[in-house]
Amino acid sequence: MRRHIFAALAAVALVSGCASTTPEVEEEEEVVVSAVEVEEVEPQEEEAFVQEAKDRVFFGFDKSNLTADAVAVLKNQAEWLKANPETTVVIEGHTDDRGTRDYNLALGERRAVAVKNYLISQGVDADRIQVISYGKERPAVVGANEAAWSQNRRAVTVVKD
Amino acid sequence: MAKWGKMKKIFLLMLFLIVSTPVCAELSIDITGAHSAPMATGLPVFTFTSPKAKDFAEKMTKVIQSDLESSGLFGVIDQLAYLQKFKGIEDAPSFVDWQAINAEALIQGHVDYLNDRQIRVSFRLWDVFAAQELYSATLEVDTNGWRRVAHMIADSIYKRITGEEGYFDTRIVYIAETGSPLNRKKRLAIMDQDGENHKFLTDGENLVLTPRFSPNMQQITYLSYYNDTPRVYLFDIETGKQQIVGDFPGMTFAPRFSPDGHKLIMSMANNGNTDIFEMNLDTRAVKQLTRSAAIETSPCYSPDGKKIVFNSDRSGAQQLYIMDADGKNVKRISFGKGRYATPVWSPRGDYIAFTKMAGGKFYIGVMFPDGKGERLVAEGYLVEAPTWSPNGRILMYFRQDAPNYRGIPGKTRIYAVDITGYNERRLITPVDASDPAWSPLLSNR
Amino acid sequence: MGLRLNLLIRMRHWPFLFKTLQKVRDHLPMVMSVTLHAVVVFLLTYDFVSYQQSQTVSVPIFVVDLTKVKVAEMTNLPPKLKKTTQKKGSKKSVRTSAYSKAPSASSGKSSGFVSSGASGGSNTSKSAKATATVKSNSNAAGSSTQSSGAFLESELNTLLDKVTTSKKQDKTAASAPASNSIKNTSNNDTMDDSFKTLLASVDGIKSGLGYASEDEVDINEDEMVTQGIEGGQGGSYMQDLSVSEKDLIGIKLRQCWNIDPGVRGAQNMLIEIRVFLDKTGNVKDVKILDKARYGKDSAFRSVAESARRAVYICDKKKEDSPFKIFPKNYEQSYETWKTLLLRFNPFDGKVG
Which of B269, B274, B355 sits opposite A100 (nearest CB)? Predict the structure, then answer.
């Protein structure tokens, strides 16, 4: 649920920067998050923007370096965090299942720490960020193809209470 | 003079004839190579004197039969074909009858009540064609220990025929899995190696992974996400109590006991780096064994405790390395195409088993500790985590089938295969299963 | 007579001895007879079984038939002939005889053998020089051979080496001398002639000894021409048991032999078993020979027992038993196959 609120707030933060009118904020809504996917918040305002809620970044196979896309997403995350200094987050590191269990736990940790280090470099206080690795234990998508696997190689930023 | 000469000549001639013939003139034939088929075995239902022992006699015979057949080395002949019917353990086998049905080995047994709570089991193992008794023993046990005695008898038979220790009196600890793959529930579970006596050890509230037995069988070490904090724990089988191991600043995982049971090796991931650490369970002292920016994990001791084989990606991809138990002399041993992981040293010391990933597929393989002689024994969409039987003859691992096109996940199950690559069998579990670990022989403690 | 007189004259000085000798002289025939009997009895008691079998020496069993030459039984020849699946340069795979198991000789020593044994080579001095420069990469047992059979084989091996390396060298003469087995390329032409003659003789010897030649040879076992070599250890007088018959026995026993392939150390095992047959080819007794190892090594015991079982199982096949070939074809020479030495080797590559 926290994930959802963060996504909503991120969208709002983005929107508020460029729209003239203030859109309705949806954070009052309690939306139940299904186990299958993260619900994406539809922006309310008329101006179409295709920015999706980005609480996660993706990685290449057996890699833990941040791509340009990832960096862009993380920049926004950092901005939001700096704007909400009382929040803390947990970075979850995940992998696809095309590897062995132990190694994937380590790889997930590497990915989570890569995200954490970037956020710190953007000015977020280190004490506010925790990391955890789930290796291949918590896939986001089930499938035996690159589309599914690429969705699972991710680091997700989850806002804690 | 002439007489002397003639005598001498005759004498010498005889000596010459006697000595000049060669020493050995036997016909010799070489037979190279053999075939390998399960050894035909006669196993008539154990006899019994008192009627209430009948149940044990039948059940134990069944357990022995399924143990021996599961090894792939014995083929028990159908009872209906037997010509001789035993009345007791003193009955001598009529070898002609057993030879007639081509039984190479014969197991003759007898069960009876010793007193109210105990039974006595006697058995004899015969070589039918050599007409010779190979082994016999008598065991006494509480009535509720009948399964273990049956396994121990199967172990004695296995040992006498193959020359190696058996593996039937053992248990398997593993992770029982249920639910959607996106929200999997995982529980620690334990059972006999034939799937009987199954028991869940945790309730699935917390994610648990990679359990391993201690050499003295009292404890299991594993990874638990209790409190959303992944750490290595010890689980006491008898009391059911769980205890965190050490106080580490980062995630600890991939734990294993040392062969003497006094130490634990594991990985710790902290600040993006994973290294191997050793903890002395008596003193609780912690020692770092690897120091590299690469991921070092899945450590495993050699059976003599002098070396450790582990998995590292310091070369750019996952490969296998060996080092001394103190962390020195690191040497790479895997050089094939593909990624190598989860190394496990055979209890016999002669092989290291591993998971290999190449060409989009997974394999289970073995290699000699110097890295040579690589041989693959299983393959699949996902096969992983080999564990050795205590006699180093069988590899158990888990296999996960690929999800189908509709996204329905494949099943996850435990399989076992002989190191020769033959006789792959599935271990039946109540639900999906992964991360198996084989105990030592229970009777050796 | 003169000698005796001399003895008597000397003996006069030792009266006691003289008297004894006189007694001996009187009963000399008796004494001689007793001594000789004692000698014979002594030798017979020390397992002098082969004396009886030596009678076959006098019977010329070896029949030379121009259309079908039969084989002399030699235990230290290779057990069966291997068809070469040819990879040029992998000549080591051709030789699988017992000699190969011994450690390889130093090149100097084997070249010494070659130069002395090279027959038909007119340029023996040149060939000797050539072999000296050829780094012997054969794995024949040069230094540790003990019999003439092995001697000849090592010669053969080095000859083959020479032949093939020179052949190889001919082919690669134009290209850079990558082969490090022949150092002096300048002797190429002169070596050619001597090698041609050597080739001829080598081919003759090769086929004579039953080695598959370096070229593809389709070995039809019926046409097998092999010559036994006298001497050596373990020679036998079953000179007319053909290779195909011997192979058949081995194959049938192999089919009766069921082993557990994962037994530890099975790769290096050799189980020797003595089988005692009666006149009709039935097995009377089976004995595992290495009792010491049988008692100590449980893996050995396991494989040895399976080999023993194989003998019994084959015997129980009655008319299909491999041992029935003896009363069928060699009924007259029961003494030669009364006992058999079976050598079981679990691994010759892989278990089938």
Answer: B355
Could you tell me if B5 lies within 8 Å of chain C, comparing CB atoms?
no
In sequence order, the 6+-apart residues with CB closer than 8 A to the CB of A106 are A133, B253, B267, B269, B274, B295, B297
Domain boundary among B129, B162, B195: B162
Return d(Cα A32, Cα A22) in angstroms, integer: 25
Tell me if C218 sits within 8 A of C83, measured CB to CB: yes
| A40 min Cα distance to partner chain B (Å) | 18
Strands B132-142 and B118-127: antiparallel
Chains A and C touch (3+ CB pairs under 8 A): no
Subunits adjacent to chain B (3 or more Cβ pairs under 8 Å): A, C
Specify the number of domains making up chain B. 2
Kindly calculate the radius of gyration of chain A based on its CA atoms and give it in whole angstroms: 16
Widest pairwise Cα distance in chain B: 115
What's the pLDDT at C125?
41
Nearest CB among A101, A109, A143 relative to B210 is that of A101
Residue in B251, B341, B407 nearest the CB of A103: B341
Specify whether the CB–CB gap between C240 and C276 falls below 8 A. no
- C142 pLDDT more than 80: no
pTM over 0.90: no
CATH of C240-344, one of 3.90.1150.10, 3.90.550.10, 3.40.50.300, 3.30.1150.10: 3.30.1150.10
Q: How far apart are CA C265 and CA B164, in angstroms?
A: 11
Contact B332, B352 (CB under 8 A): no
Question: Quick check: is B20 in a domain?
Answer: no
- Quote the pLDDT of residue B35: 82
Which residues in chain C have Cβ-Cβ distances shorter than 8 Å to B129? 309, 312-313, 316
Domain end (from B119, B139, B162): B162
HSE of B294, CA atoms in CB hemisphere, 13 A:
16
Instruction: Tell me which residue in B207, B298, B385 faces A137 most closely, judged by beta carbons.
Output: B207
Q: CB distance A98–B207 less than 8 Å?
A: no
Separation between Cα atoms, residue C299 and residue C307, nearest integer Å: 13
Domain residues for B271? 171-444
CATH classification number, A54-161, choose in 3.40.50.2300, 3.30.420.40, 3.30.1330.60, 3.20.20.70: 3.30.1330.60
- Percent of chain B exceeding pLDDT 90 equals 85
Same domain, B152 and B210: no
Report DSSP state, residue B42.
E
Highest mean pLDDT among A109-118, C168-177, C246-255: A109-118
Q: Is residue B3 part of a domain?
A: no
**Residue from B29, B132, B422 whose CB has the most chain C CBs within 10 Å, to mutate:** B29
Rounded Cα–Cα distance for residues C352 and C349 (Å): 9
pLDDT tens readout for residues B122-174: 999 999 998 999 999 999 999 999 999 999 999 999 999 999 999 999 999 99
Q: What is the pLDDT of residues A7-19, one digit of tens each?
A: 555 555 444 444 4
Inform me whether the C-beta atom of residue C347 falls under 8 Å from chain B C-beta atoms: yes
Looking up residue B358, the CATH number of its domain turns out to be 2.120.10.30
Chain B residue numbers touching A110 (CB-CB < 8 A): 269, 272-274, 295
For residue B30, tell me if it sits in a domain. Answer: no
Domain limits of chain A?
1-53, 54-161
Interface contact C72, partner B, CB < 8 A: no
Q: Is the pLDDT of residue A42 over 50?
A: no
Interface residue B34 vs chain C (CB under 8 A): yes
What is the Cα B433 distance to its own chain's centre? 18
CA distance B348 to chain C (A): 9
- Is the pLDDT reported for residue A46 higher than 90? no
In whole angstroms, give the CA distance from residue B344 to residue B354: 6
